[in-house]
Amino acid sequence: xxxxxxxxxxxxxxxxxxxxxxxxxxxxxxxxxxxxxxxxxxxxxxxxxxxxxxxxxxxxxxxxxxxxxxxxxxxxxxxxxxxxxxxxxxxxxxxxxxxxxx
Length: 102
Hints:
0% strand, mainly alpha
């Protein structure tokens, strides 16, 4: 999400201070800058992972109770969707900067 925010013109220092490790804060910023284009299952997944991510618990998986995590297949499906939309956005931006030669 931070790459999408930086692409949209967010200041890196503001992200470090305002978002830090909060996925929920990053999500809210993306929703504001992109007009709510992240929705449904992706929002639910991001919100469910925000607290353990902020606590840097993924570095120490033994600290994560399995009951608190979403099912891996759902998480992977949602992540694939999010990465596809991010890729589409950034490719469009890159093409606009570097048009194909004649």
